[in-house]
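Reopening this ticket.

The earlier resolution said the output was attached, but the attachment link was broken on my side. Pasting everything inline this time so it's all in one place.
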Amino acid sequence: MTSEKTQSRMPNWVDVYVGGQVRIRRRQLGFSQEKLGDTIGITFQQVQKYEKGKNRIGASRLRDIAQCLNVPISFFFPRCEEDSSSLDRLAKPVGATPQLGVTAEAIELVQLFSEITDPDLRKTIVSLVRVLSEHHKA
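Inline output:
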C-alpha cells in the first residue's frame, strides 16, 4: 500500500494524459521539445516534465501550447460527456500510471495508415499488426 506522501508525488492521470497529448501533437508537427519550449518561453526540460505529467500545465500555459501547436485547447482532453463519471472511467486505479506508448514510429504508422483509403487493405493491415502483436507476446 502506498503512503499518502508517496501518493502525492505520483503524477495525476489527467496531467499524464494532457502531457501525452502535447507530445503527440508536437511530434506530429515535427517540433523538438526545445523548439516548443523556445516558442512559448520555457526550457525543453520543462516541456519534458509537462509531457510526462510530472508538472501540471497551467491554463495560460496550455493556451500558449495550443496556439503554438495550432490546436484547440479541447485537443488536450479526453473526448467525454460533460459528467464526471465519463472522466472517472478513463482514470487508472490509484497509483497506476497510464502507459501512452506514443513513439515516433506509432505516430508515423497512424499518419501513413490514415492515408490508405481502401477499406479492405486497412482491415488486412490491422489483422497483420494484430498477429504480429500476438506473436510478440508469446
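Reporter confirms the inline version is readable. The domain at 1-94 is CATH 1.10.260.40 (434 Repressor (Amino-terminal Domain)). Residues 24 and 106 are 10 Å apart (CA to CA).
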